[in-house]
Each structure stands twice: as structure tokens, then as C-alpha cells.
Amino acid sequence: MTLEIQDVTKRVGAEIHIHETSLRFLPGHFNVLLGETNAGKTTLMKLMAGLDQPTSGQVLIDGVEVTKQSTQDRQISFVHQFFVNYPHLSVYENIASPLRLARISSSDIDRRVREAADLMKLTPMLERRPQELSGGQQQRTALARAIVKDSKVVFLDEPLANLDYKLREELRSELPQLFADRGAVVIYATSEPAEALMLGGCTATLHEGRVSQFDETSDVYRNPVNLTTAQVFSDPPLNTAVVTKAGGRCTLNTEVSWELSGPQSQLADGEYMIGVRPHHVLPTAISEGVAIAGSVQVTELSGSESVAHFRVGEGSWVSQSEGIHPYQVGESHTFFMDVSKCFFFAADGRLVA
Amino acid sequence: MKLRSLAPILYILFLMLPIYWLVSMSFKTTNEILAGFSLFPQEFTLENYAAIFTDPSWYWGYINSTIYVTINTIISVSVALPAAYAFSRYRFMGDKHLFFWLLTNRMAPPAVFALPFFQLYSAVGLFDTHIAVALAHCLFNIPLAVWILEGFMSGVPKELDETAYVDGYSFRRFFFRIFMPNIKAGIGVAAFFCFMFSWVELLLAKTLTAVDAKPIAATMTKTASSAGYELGLLAAAGCLTIIPGAIVIYFVRNHIAKGFALGRV
Question: How far apart, in whole angstroms, are the C-alpha atoms of residue A204 and residue A10?
């Protein structure tokens, strides 16, 4: 089963919510929509689910146009970020509801509901009302309802965003398996780059209503086609700076410049935007590292890694490194940038090297 | 007793006094009432109530009132449900103005509409029918019900609608099977307010009826002068008028505050 959108746009009044977008989702693995809040993830999903009508363009399921088809007839599942269940029905009836409407025999319904409940570890709660459950259990009820129905397309709109850390980890590792053998197209929206990487599959990066890239997740991460993709797919934020290339040398400012090698040295002379991921800017010396000094503004220390925000001239930079590094806020510190991992973007944002 | 608990007790006594007086009067004879001040009925009598339940001109007043109030409540709530849903879920041209305009209907005194209604209903042959009063009361009750229901409906996330559509519910099925059970408190409160306003409204009900649909309140004002002032009888009739309201309020007692805030708590 495949889901395809062709030249889909969405305009509300004078505002463009989704710019012309064409995507083709193949079944078998996870498809992630990655973008920050308001990037248009939910809007795009609703357009595909038929909960909203595109201004122009077409939606196809298995090659058949369904743009005008109602949501009810599309055989899809949709799990929202907020736990949405039917408050007046028991967990059992909540899970059974799509099957009841499909007029399936009650013994079949019972078997499938118990199977889904078992997968989602809800068996002891079947007779309770959704409000009597914890947030995680409520969301698992919603997920069970999505699983029990043999949907062609499953939409998961930040389903783990409102769950606590432990549950998130647990469900995140279970989710891909759950849908993998069902042959459904799974589309998962998230605002966290780390989550996209953990889920694998394919990722479409979304920014201000535009899909900037859609490919295998690791490909999108390693070879972003443009600056937008690299920025969307980076957390902490991507370090960017304007550099001037002249001959074999690249200059960031009066103090920082380095010798280029490989394809980067083949670029035409001129100004470029460079992008360096925070974990390629380290507080200790590395080979091929270019020293860059800045004053430390904010530091975040977790058990296993240190994040430092520092300023270099007008630009703000982020360094992310393993281990604990005792930074002094306000003091100057020398960081080392791995220039071999540097992206070079042209003035229009295209990746050039 | 502490001083600070005295104030609420006094206040409650003050509130209950007229009701107590009415109940106490209903068990007295008219002579005793006219004789002067007496705190309790000296000659306890149920004759006043007996008179009401045996005289058709009295008990039909209650039946008439109940009929048009029920019709009105059913019409108001069933018309307001889809209207409130539209206001709560869709954006359309002028929706906010229309929504506010609805409420301004309640700001005009009913007397303003008595004459046009009287003339209109006489012309189309609706005068002195239950449906005439029920429809006239809709003018005030539908806007109120829309406001109350809209508040309750907006408390239900739109995602619930979407989830139901995804699960395969048609709109009609979703509305009756999923949505209405979720706002049943709101429906109860809206019905209560419609019932209450229609039950206590006197002017339109009296103007638009003569014999066949005469409401209890009108009956009370007319019978008062026939054989002098039958105060005991009137008091008994008054007591019976309070009872339906008391019963209805019992069912919505937990949601009534939200209703007064038009569902916006």
C-alpha cells in the first residue's frame, strides 16, 4: 500500500499553510515528518487523512485518487498528540469502536480487541473509563484503537510528546515493530530530530509549510540538500557562519581561518554559509580542529554530556560534547571545530560541499 | 453559637420566610389567614389542595403549562444543538456578530413582543393553542440554549470529532452516539433553563391564551376575585407551582453554576 500526494497546497485566507508539496510514502517502514511547531506537520497530515481539504492538488492511496473521499471511507488511523478517547465509553469499547462500525462479528471483535490490548499492556484496564487511566495508558488506548483497525495508513501526530520520559523511550522502541508487519504506511510527526533518528525509516523535513527534503533518515541527516534541512534536523541548533573562500583558504573572521581540502577546496571563490553540527564543536583539541574562541553564555550539563552556548563576535554558537566540562559562564573558552564535517551552503541555501 | 455562623443562618431564614409563609398559608383556611397573624396553621386543612385536584379549571392550568413548557424545551434544545455545534466548530462570515445578536434577543422585555405575537397568531389561527405559547417562548429560549450549549461544546476538543470520523463514524452517528453523551450535562442545564424561563413567564403565556391553553399563573389571577379572595386556595396553587422547578433543579444541581456562566467555566 502506498500513499501519495501530488502538488498539494493549503491556503487559509491569504495565508499559505502548505506550499506545493509532492510526496510518495512507501509501506514497510516508518515515515517521519520532522519540523518544529507550526511547520505544518499536523496540517499536512490532516490533508492526507481527509480531515481537511487541500486548496489544490491530489491525494492518492494505492494509486487511486481519494482527494474528495471522506475520512470515514479512507481506512486510516490517526493518533493525536493529546490523548483523545471517547470519555463515556470503557477502554474496551474505545478500542472496539472502529470495528463495531465496520460490522464485524462480536467474537472477532473480542479477539482483536484483546490482542491489541495485550500488545499495549491494557488488559487489566479494559473495563475502566479513559479518565481513570494515566496519561500513558490513555495514549496507549488511542494507539490500540489505531492498531486494532487494519488501516492502510496510520498517522501518528507527535504521539509521545505529552508522555513522560520513561514511557516515551519504551513506546518509541515498540512503535516501529508494531506497525512494521502490518504493511501499513506509517507517518509519524515529531519536532525532535533525535526521535527521527531513533525511529529510522524515511524522514521528510518540513519548514514553514515546505518540505525541504525527503529520503532515508540517515541520508537526510548526513547529506542535507540545503541549509533549511540541516537546521531542522539539528538539535541543539546548527552553528552557522558566513565565511569567505579565497584560493585554498577559508576565512571566518580575522582570527579564524583554515586550509580547505577535498571538494571544498574546489569551490569557486566567494562567500559561503557554513553549517557545523554542535557535536563537531568540541571543548578539547582534536585533529583537523580549528580553534575558535568565544565567551561562554549558558551551559547545560547532563550526566553524560555538556552543552555550551557561546558567542563569537555577533554570532552565537553551540558546542555539544561527551563528558562533563566545567565551563565558567562569562569567561572566554577556546573550542575546536571539526572543519572536515563542515557543510558549505551557497547564498540560496543549497548545499555545495 | 459563633457569631460568624449567625449571619448565614439569618440570611437563609430571610430567604426561606416567604416560602414558609406560602406553604403555611396553603394549609390554612381563608378565614384564618384573614383573621390576623398566625405562625402555624391553627386548623390544619388539606381542603385547598383537594379543591385544586378536583376542579378541572384549576388542574388544567397545570396540565396546559406543562404541555407548552415541555414542547418549548424540546424545540429549543433540539434547534439549539445543531446551531451551537456550528458556532463552536466552524468559522463562517459574521459568526461572532450573529452569536452576540442572539443574546441581545433576551435583552428586550417580553411585553414588546406580546402585541405582534397576539396579532400574528390570531391571524393564522394559532391563538389559544399550546404550540403558540411554546413558539413564542422559543424567541427567548433558543438563544439562551445556544449560548449554554456552545460553551459546553467548546469544552470538547475538536480532535474528538476527528477521531470519530477516522474511526468511521458518520456525522449523524458521531453526533448522537459520541458527542451528545459528552455534553449531556450541558443539554440538561440548557433544558433546565428553558424549562424555568418558560414556566415562570406569565405575560406572553397569558396574552396568547384564552381558555384551551390557559396557563396556571393566569388561572391564579382570575380565580382570585370570583368568591372574594380565596387566599388559601391561591397559596396551595402557588406551592404546586414551585414543585416542578424544584424537581428539575435537583437533576442538574451539580452543573447549574456552569449553566449560569453559559457553560464557560
Answer: 18
Distance from the B183 Cα atom to the nearest Cα atom in chain A, whole angstroms: 10
Specify the CATH class of A3-232 in words: alpha beta
CATH classification of A239-345 is 3.10.620.30, yes or no? no
What are B186-198's pLDDT values in tens digits? 999 999 999 999 9
* Contacting residues of B for A69, CB less than 8 Å apart: none
pLDDT band of residue B212 (cuts 50, 70, 90) is confident
Q: What pLDDT is stored for residue A17 in this prediction?
A: 93
CB contact under 8 Å between B162 and A102, yes or no, is no
Contacts 24+ apart (CB under 8 A), A17-20: A17/A43, A17/A209, A18/A43, A18/A44, A18/A47, A18/A54, A18/A209, A19/A209, A19/A210, A20/A57
- Let me know: does A86 contact A93? Beta carbons within 8 Å: yes
- Which regions in chain A score pLDDT beneath 70? 28-29
B213 in Cβ contact with B129 (< 8 Å): yes
3-class SS of residue B109: coil
C-alpha cell belonging to residue A65: 485518487
Question: In the predicted model, is pLDDT for residue B265 greater than 60?
Answer: no
Rounded to two decimals, the pTM is 0.83
Give the per-residue pLDDT at B44. 87
Full strand arrangement of the beta sheet holding A202-207: A76-79, A153-157, A185-190, A30-34, A202-207, A210-216
Instruction: Report residue B51: phi and psi, to 5°.
Output: -60, -40
A104, B192 Cβ separation under 8 angstroms? no
Q: For residue A215, which amino acid is it?
A: D
| Cβ neighbours of B173 in A, within 8 Å | 101
Q: Where in chain A is the domain with CATH 3.40.50.300?
A: 3-232
Indicate if the pLDDT at residue B4 is higher than 60: yes
DSSP-derived 3-state class of residue B69: helix
Ranges of CATH 2.40.50.140 domains, chain A: 239-345
Report the CATH fold assignment for B66-215+245-260: MetI-like fold (1.10.3720)
Q: How many residues does chain A have?
A: 353
Which positions in chain B have a beta carbon within 8 angstroms of at least one beta carbon in chain A? Answer: 157, 159-160, 162-170, 173, 178, 181-182
pLDDT of residue A26: 81
A9-33 CB burial, b ≥16 within 10 A, e <16: bbeeeeebbbeebebebebebbbbb
Give me the DSSP letters along B6-31: HHHHHHHHHHHHHHHHHHHHHTS-HH
Q: Give me the residue from A71, A86, A88 closest to B166, CB to CB.
A: A71
| Sequence-distant (≥ 6) Cβ neighbours of residue B85 within 8 angstroms | B149, B153, B175, B179
A–B interface: beta-carbon pairs under 8 A: 52
**Residues of chain B positioned with their CB less than 8 A from the CB of A51:** 162, 165-166
User: What pLDDT, in 10s, does the model give residues A157-168?
Assistant: 999 888 888 888
Please list every residue in chain A whose beta carbon sits closer than 8 Å to the beta carbon of residue B92.
none
3 state DSSP class of B111: helix
Determine whether the interchain pair B163/A101 forms a contact, defined as Cβ–Cβ distance below 8 Å.
no
Q: Break chain B into its structural domains and give their ranges.
A: 66-215+245-260
